[in-house]
Amino acid sequence: MKKIRVVVMGSTGLVGQQFVRLLDGHPYFDLAALMASGRSAGRPYGQAVPWAVGGDIPEQAAQLEVLDTSLETVMSQAPDIAFSALPAGAAEGIEPALRERGVRVFSNAGCRRQDADVPVLIPEINPGHLELARWQQARYGGFIVTNSNCSTSGLALVLKPLEKFDFREVTVTTFQSISGAGRRGLASFDIAGNVIPWIKNEEEKMERESRKILGELTADGIRPASFPVSATCCRVPVREGHLMSVSVRFANGAGAPDVAEALAAFRGVPQGLGLPTAPEQPIIVRPEEDRPQPALDAWAGRPERARGMAVSVGRIREKGGAMSLVLLVHNTVRGAAGACILGAELAAAEKIFS
Amino acid sequence: MKKIRVVVMGSTGLVGQQFVRLLDGHPYFDLAALMASGRSAGRPYGQAVPWAVGGDIPEQAAQLEVLDTSLETVMSQAPDIAFSALPAGAAEGIEPALRERGVRVFSNAGCRRQDADVPVLIPEINPGHLELARWQQARYGGFIVTNSNCSTSGLALVLKPLEKFDFREVTVTTFQSISGAGRRGLASFDIAGNVIPWIKNEEEKMERESRKILGELTADGIRPASFPVSATCCRVPVREGHLMSVSVRFANGAGAPDVAEALAAFRGVPQGLGLPTAPEQPIIVRPEEDRPQPALDAWAGRPERARGMAVSVGRIREKGGAMSLVLLVHNTVRGAAGACILGAELAAAEKIFS
Amino acid sequence: MKKIRVVVMGSTGLVGQQFVRLLDGHPYFDLAALMASGRSAGRPYGQAVPWAVGGDIPEQAAQLEVLDTSLETVMSQAPDIAFSALPAGAAEGIEPALRERGVRVFSNAGCRRQDADVPVLIPEINPGHLELARWQQARYGGFIVTNSNCSTSGLALVLKPLEKFDFREVTVTTFQSISGAGRRGLASFDIAGNVIPWIKNEEEKMERESRKILGELTADGIRPASFPVSATCCRVPVREGHLMSVSVRFANGAGAPDVAEALAAFRGVPQGLGLPTAPEQPIIVRPEEDRPQPALDAWAGRPERARGMAVSVGRIREKGGAMSLVLLVHNTVRGAAGACILGAELAAAEKIFS
Amino acid sequence: MKKIRVVVMGSTGLVGQQFVRLLDGHPYFDLAALMASGRSAGRPYGQAVPWAVGGDIPEQAAQLEVLDTSLETVMSQAPDIAFSALPAGAAEGIEPALRERGVRVFSNAGCRRQDADVPVLIPEINPGHLELARWQQARYGGFIVTNSNCSTSGLALVLKPLEKFDFREVTVTTFQSISGAGRRGLASFDIAGNVIPWIKNEEEKMERESRKILGELTADGIRPASFPVSATCCRVPVREGHLMSVSVRFANGAGAPDVAEALAAFRGVPQGLGLPTAPEQPIIVRPEEDRPQPALDAWAGRPERARGMAVSVGRIREKGGAMSLVLLVHNTVRGAAGACILGAELAAAEKIFS
Q1: What is the distance between the alpha carbons of residues B256 and B258, in angstroms, rounded to a whole number?
Q2: C125 and C258 share a domain?
């Protein structure tokens, strides 16, 4: 297969770095260029980036000169795909313009997730929503596909296999890591040894996006699922990995072993296709009474290329008609860059663009 | 008033230190002796204790020679009251024996909380349960009064004013600080930069004790309240203060402003009596969207002697028939030593013993 | 004594908050107004400030409307003294202008510390340097007095009593807390569970300011002391308190007990005058092998008003002609706001202005 | 080459886990058995170990039944090599007995490091000291080879290439991570958000072992080098990686560029032999002003099998005849298990035993 030419916008932030890490030696994609803000532009990526996602900067990427994020510059690279780790404001400006010029944008930015024709894609859950990308392509030439908010990615993955138990209501309290705020997003004095029980817009996103992801594709676009989600989102002094305490009320009388089995057995289209970034097992059920834990489980997932792409679940208990469990998702991998790349792999495998 | 002669057992641990701090210059109580394990016995308290609760060791206490915790030694001090910060095993051995010898024991230990004639006292909530102490006194000469588990103290205080809204069900996820495990109870490598989503026996205690505290005193003892409590208890890398995300389902249609008003207006018997360790306002409602926070609010409570005795509540929101809120309680003060001392103040004021 | 009318510029940052806390109920000073950046101006201080220095916002201060920091606004308050917690850029603009208008500025800003006629005042060490304030007053009407950089304050205090041992060279490695970077100065992802072995300009300041503080007042201004200081400044994930490992090479053969005695016995002019914010004992020598520690000792100092004003020293050991010790200083109190206020108290007591 | 049969004693602690991780798929060594304390014995390693060193437990190791650490049990496995991560007390009992029975012990335990005929081996520095193993083998049948204390490993590696500048004196302050105390060695309440400026026996070990490692092999054993080392050892709330601020006084006038070049160019025998766990470059010099940092650099070293085996050095500066620098070493890899394994690789390559 001829490799697909890709660029990464917003490449110096934490999510951008995860893109670069995951694209190193990628079997489908060829990293052609890296964009970042004006401050970094013109310097080799290896010097411009405060690399903070583990290991060394991939050598090929380190040599690339960082480019600015103007439409002209991006188009000058003739990308098939633009991966976007841009903040919402910057994304709003350039992503639709790239789509108009035929580029396929896989974006971690939140600004287009509510568009009727833009899928919020989690390839194991709603691969069919990629149909919306075809619709966009017909209309614009290119398309925008988004991944979900980082917390939502873990929650939605776990809810999907539970659909058969007919759940009615979800209550979730999150323990979100500081990397979720971006490298510079949170002052250390505010969070050191502390918990902040609020994250701007996060609860709304979890509630809205969960329903869209689990919604049904109709001729009019996505019809959201109807279950209510009640979220309380909190920041904790952890570097990587969002943990969540979830309570799900079922209509039928499923027990904890049924739930554990359904979660552990879950496989999606990416597993069937053997996509490079797809974890062999998307949901790992931990039998220990005190797992999952961010320090031990954030990077769950095999093979090597899929590290951080599996969601870990533990403490599955039934109580008074509700099922309680704890889940953990790597927020900048499964919840951001990894989800985007897996989406692009799916689109490539399904020949959405050729 | 002639001062009441008190001793503290288990005085060198974190809860024991809070006892010593709170008893310094206390208007009712005169600290006669401090007990600890054999390792510390025979040394001045000021040298034996790894003081870690802020400020300097009170001077009078620092001079006291630490005594061992045998029945003979404790009785040799002729205490009116023995405050106990003993671990459950040690408490099990000595507390009933002291009661038999006429001592009033106010205990933070968990081992007797389930006894039918032992109250789990939170003076603002169930002052009437002190009647059980009279029953014990008639039978044994002395009595044992316990305070609740640390997390329960915050939850029960907040539930009390909500009784009028006829709540039916409580779901709670806790963010508990490391001091709750005792000074040596948790290995730093396990919790540094991490969350541990399980605390041994804690969920059972929260569920059981909440119902006893809010239960009704009958001729047969306490009849527990009947609402179900579903708890997920997690440890976070915070030094002091247990935060909780709580969801309460009401039968009637109370709104967030009703709840906020009921909480802020709540006062109990200790406030009416002006007990020394009673906070002017037991529950402080924070209007900010990102409060309470352990680093900022753990020590809430006025006047000075009642610092750490007020519970802070924020983020009161209604969603689909359930009320969500976040609360914070100082686990070693309101959740332990402070609760015991306030209970003893109440007993003294009500002349349970004379 | 008629109270002296003071304002605080930069009042909403961490150092500004310490000023407000320390000025509450101050026996010499009357807090007339609080200034902050345009964002906060116009709102009551109690709403504008993200209070983070413990306890509640002092009530009188909470009611004050925050004012902007223009020269006109400050002068409209007719202050006798302006305390400044401004960043260097803002300080550069307004402090000299206030001086020209007769205001006495006590400043935590670094920009004027190198001026020949501006003292870097640590009242216990170099009270005589206040003479420079008289010189300025004669020339400008008002004056600027600075306190030292936060790390320097601890180091210089400990070096002063060691002068008699004729020290020749100082090597210091710091463990500096995140509050030293200001509330928003350090991203949590950068420092959580990490050490950053560099702080911009800090080593240069420690070296330069130590020598000026311990320098001699001559007719030409301060002649700096001549000992070399070699500093390595590191940031650690601690909220408050700068710890330092110090090695001092002596010309004479002083032993560890001599050093301990000299440090513990040290008293300065503020102690002799009984200034309100002066700690009874400026340097506390800890006998324990594992002290001082930020979590336990940052707030050392008595009486209550002087909490955080004492420097703690431990681990005094001699090795091969060099004396090693560990010291701890509260960076935003003794190293910033407290030092400024103590300086102003000294100036008031010595009737530098009347 | 026929693989060498090895066992790991003390396999469930943090250092033991690093042994297991590093031995997975090792080209020289075949992991035959894992020993641990009685509590774990009899269970599969995968269930007995609280795995905490990243990734998943190697599958082959996970299946092994944990054995007890009695002499009989260890000998029943007929090991060529016993790797030891035992605590000193347990090591004292069994290591010499194994040596008497012909086993080659490579030990992380501290108890034999002072023996005249036991080398403290850092293969890049003192490969010639392995001669002592031959001496032991002639006498006992087997031998004991130790690696150094974790902090010493980083310091000694950096001092080696500086010998040519004729250094006279070393002053070092450490920032040691909590994993250095073992998984259960440090209470979280003691270190969370804190610095503890003392580690039991650590300073003495750094001083003594540095001189032995850099000492000269003579007919009477090792003659220690004579430079004085003055160490202040501190614990910081970091999970992995010991950082050190080092000041070295040179007799000759080497400049910072000379030092940087000597460090970066350094290679040892393991690099020449291409040993599997040898990092291509033992010392990595970082040009950035704020590196190395534990969170970013602890795992330095290539290729994959040598991750954590390179020491990072930065901030090389000259000041007044002394050279200052900051170094970082992964304490449980280069400072413990990795050093042992590299030593065994060297012994195997040099056919110390055949």
Answers
A1: 5
A2: no
Helix (H, G, I), strand (E, B) or coil at C337: helix
Using N-to-C axis directions, what is the helix angle for D202-213 and D150-159, rounded to 10°?
Answer: 40
CA–CA separation, B297 and B281 (whole Å)? 14
Q: Return the pLDDT at D339.
A: 97
List Cα–Cα distances, A213 to A134, A208, B21, C241, D313, in angstroms. Answer: 17, 9, 54, 48, 48
Distance from CA of B183 to the nearest CA of A (A): 16
Q: Report the CATH number that the domain containing residue A81 is assigned in CATH.
A: 3.40.50.720
pTM to 2 decimal places: 0.96
The CA-atom distances, in angstroms, between B91 and each of A215, B106, B111, B202, D233 are: 56, 11, 7, 19, 39
Q: Do C238 and D194 touch (CB under 8 A)?
A: yes
- Residue A23: strand, helix, or coil: helix
Residues within 8 A of A (CB atoms), B 46-85 only: none
Q: Alpha-carbon distance C308 to A163, whole Å?
A: 58
pLDDT digits (tens, 9 = 90+) for C256-306: 999 999 999 999 999 999 999 999 999 999 999 999 999 999 999 999 999
> What CATH number should be reported for the domain holding residue B188?
3.30.360.10
- Do the domain assignments include residue D261? yes
Assigned token pair, A354: 């050729």
Catalogue the E-assigned strands of A251-287: 283-285
The two structure tokens encoding residue A64: 């690339």
Q: What is the pLDDT along chain C (354 residues), one digit of tens a residue?
A: 689 999 999 999 999 999 999 999 999 999 999 999 988 999 999 999 999 998 889 999 999 999 999 999 999 999 999 999 999 999 999 999 999 999 999 999 989 999 999 999 999 999 999 999 999 999 999 999 999 999 999 999 999 999 999 888 999 999 999 999 999 999 999 999 999 999 999 999 999 999 999 999 999 889 999 999 999 999 999 999 999 999 999 887 789 999 999 999 999 999 999 999 999 999 999 999 999 999 999 999 999 999 999 999 999 999 877 999 999 999 999 999 999 999 999 999 999 886
Q: Do both B342 and B290 map to the same domain? A: no
Encode burial over D19-46: b for 16+ CB neighbours within 10 A, e otherwise: bbbbbeebebbebbbbbbbeebbeebbb
Residue C354 in any domain: the answer is no
In a domain, B354, yes or no: no
**Minimum-distance CB partner of D188 among B14, B52, B186:** B186
Q: Specify which residues B107 forms β-bridges with.
A: B84, B146
Give how far C296 is from chain B: nearest CA, Å: 6
- Residues A136, A235 within the same domain: no
pLDDT under 70 in chain B at which residues? Answer: 1, 354
- Structural domain of A9: 4-149+337-349
Residues C199 and C88 in one domain: no
Tell whether B43 and B191 lie within a shared domain.
no
> What is the rounded CA–CA span in Å between residue C289 and residue C9?
41
pLDDT one-digit tens code per residue, A9-52: 999 999 999 999 999 999 999 999 999 998 899 999 999 999 99
Same domain, B138 and B258: no
Inform me whether the C-beta atom of residue C247 falls under 8 Å from chain D C-beta atoms: yes
Residue B310, domain member (yes or no): yes
Q: How many domains does chain B have?
A: 2
Q: Same domain for C195 and C65?
A: no
B132 and B186 fall within a common domain: no
ipTM for this prediction: 0.96
| Residues of C labelled as active-site residues | 150, 242
Mutation for A interface: C177, C189, C196, C235, most A CBs within 10 A = C189
Check B52 against C299: CB less than 8 A apart. Answer: no
* Tokens encoding D2: 């026929």
CA C26 vs. chain centroid, Å, equals 18
CB neighbour list of residue A318: distance below 8 Å, 6 or more residues apart:
A255, A256, A324
